[in-house]
Amino acid sequence: MTPEQFVAGLPKAELHMHLEGSIEPDLFLRLARRNGVDIRWSTEAELRAAYSFDDLQDFLNLYYDGCRVLVQSQDFHDVTREYLHRAHADRVLHAEMFLGVQGHTTRGVAPATIMDGVLGAMDEALAEDGISSGLIVVAQRHRSEAEALELLDSLAPWYDRLMGFGLGGAEVGHPPRKFAEFFRRCRALGFKVVAHAGEEGPAGYVREAVELLQVQRVDHGNACVDDAALVAELAQSRIPLTMCPLSNLRLHVVPSVAAHPLKRLLDAGLCVTVNSDDPSYFGGYVNDNYLACQVALGLERADLVRLARNSFEAAFISEERRAFALRAIDAWSAEAEAEVQGAARAEAT
Ligand code: ADE
Ligand code: ZN
Q1: Helix or strand or coil: residue 192?
Q2: How confident is the model at residue 218 (pLDDT cuts 50, 70, 90)?
Q3: Of the candidates 280, 281, 282, 263, which has an alpha carbon nearest to the alpha carbon of residue 272?
Q4: DSSP state at residue 199
Q5: Most buried of 44, 58, 75, 339 (most Cβ within 10 A)?
Q6: CA dihedral 162, 163, 165, 171 (to 10 degrees)
Q7: Three-class DSSP category at 312
Q8: Ligand 1 centroid to 168 CA: how many Å?
């Protein structure tokens, strides 16, 4: 069994992806046409050629502009359904998806338009493919904390359908402490909380997210490697890092996947997970990320299994579902091992 085949059949959870970052060029063009939205590109090739970025801000400029093609409920439905189809094909059993509601409401789209489309597609994916999913609303960190609090209030009608809240967007200059009250409110309401930290920002932002915001997971977290004490604390607490190697490569957070800290942190005992972030912009879904790491970091099959197990340890799911997923990983590992043994026997005879 090749690494590609092993990764393809490995049951996994994806915990760090932005729905708005999963609009494939063909869907992007269809949505622009459907809604009469003026865009700079007319072919998929032109769009793909535009996906070359200097850094996070350069990417965010295009990403926020791209959100203009999402107008009607059906658009939010289609983006969500297409991502969940694609994730299911990668043997993702469970996905936790980020939604940047402010990027739409500030353009005049009503929260109900967004939520009806996304939640309907999530229900459909569960019924049709058996893939479970959760929704995490991210506040944009370049906006004020007051706006984040307004966002929280505006979503009250959907609290029972939301898993949690997070923090995304331009990191440097917008430290976690700027959102301390927002996170306190989210936690008091019983939501799971996560935050992007240590992607372009320093190790201090990761520490602040953990200690001040009391996040249950850190999104990215790369910069923790600069603080040995923090690495030891993260290993001890098992607060997961949702890492995104191909995103980090495309946004120049790392010079190469070979230089990515994922394997070092995995070996140090942290609950590291592999995710796609914005798959259509960064040229890879979750399995592409696993495989890029396997090749560049020389991951063994046991490392791939550890990463998949971590994804379910880190997921906001019931213990029953976690146990089911871990058994599915064991079954797949046993199948792969039996194939290796069978091939060895065939060679010996
Ligand atoms: N929003 C979408 N992708 C992001 C990333 N890589 N970092 C921060 N915010 C984002
Ligand atoms: Zn992200």
Answers
A1: strand
A2: very high
A3: 263
A4: S
A5: 75
A6: -120
A7: helix
A8: 6
Counting ligand 1 atoms within 8 A of each CB, the residue from 196, 251, 275 with the most, and so the one to mutate, is: 196
Q: Which two tokens stand for residue 268?
A: 């140090």
CB 135 within 8 A of CB 118: yes
Query: Which residues 6+ apart lie within 8 Å of 233 measured at CB?
Result: 210
- DSSP string of 200-268, one letter each residue: SS-HHHHHHHHHTS--SEEEE-GGGGG-HHHHHHHHHHT--EEE-HHHHHHTTSSSSGGG-THHHHHHT
Measured CA distances, 118 to 77, 112, 225, 238, 342 (Å)? 5, 10, 36, 31, 45
Of 210, 187, 200, nearest to 141 (Cα)?
Answer: 200
Structural class in CATH, domain 3-348: alpha beta
The pair of structure tokens assigned to 64 is 């926020």
**Ligand 1 pocket, mutate which of 15, 17, 18 (most atoms under 8 A from CB):** 18
- Count, residues in the chain: 349
Catalytic residues: 199
Average pLDDT, integer, range 270-280: 98
| C-alpha–C-alpha distance, residues 127 and 132, integer Å | 9
Q: Which ligand is nearest to the CA of 59?
A: 1
Q: CA dist 229 to 221, 237, 311, 331, Å?
A: 14, 12, 24, 37
pLDDT at 163: 98
What is the DSSP annotation of 8-67?
HHS-EEEEEEEGGGG--HHHHHHHHHHHT---S--SHHHHHHH---SSHHHHHHHHHHHG
C-alpha to C-alpha distance for 25 and 47, rounded to whole angstroms: 6
The tokens for 164 are 């949690």
Q: Which atom of ligand 1 is nearest to the CA of 168?
A: 9
Answer yes or no: are the C-beta atoms of 104 and 68 closer than 8 Å.
no
28-33 LR contacts (CB < 8 Å, sep 24+):
28/66, 28/69, 28/280, 31/69, 31/70, 31/71, 31/75, 31/78, 32/69
Rounded Cα distance between 237 and 205, Å, is 17
> DSSP label at 198?
S
Quote the pLDDT of residue 271: 98
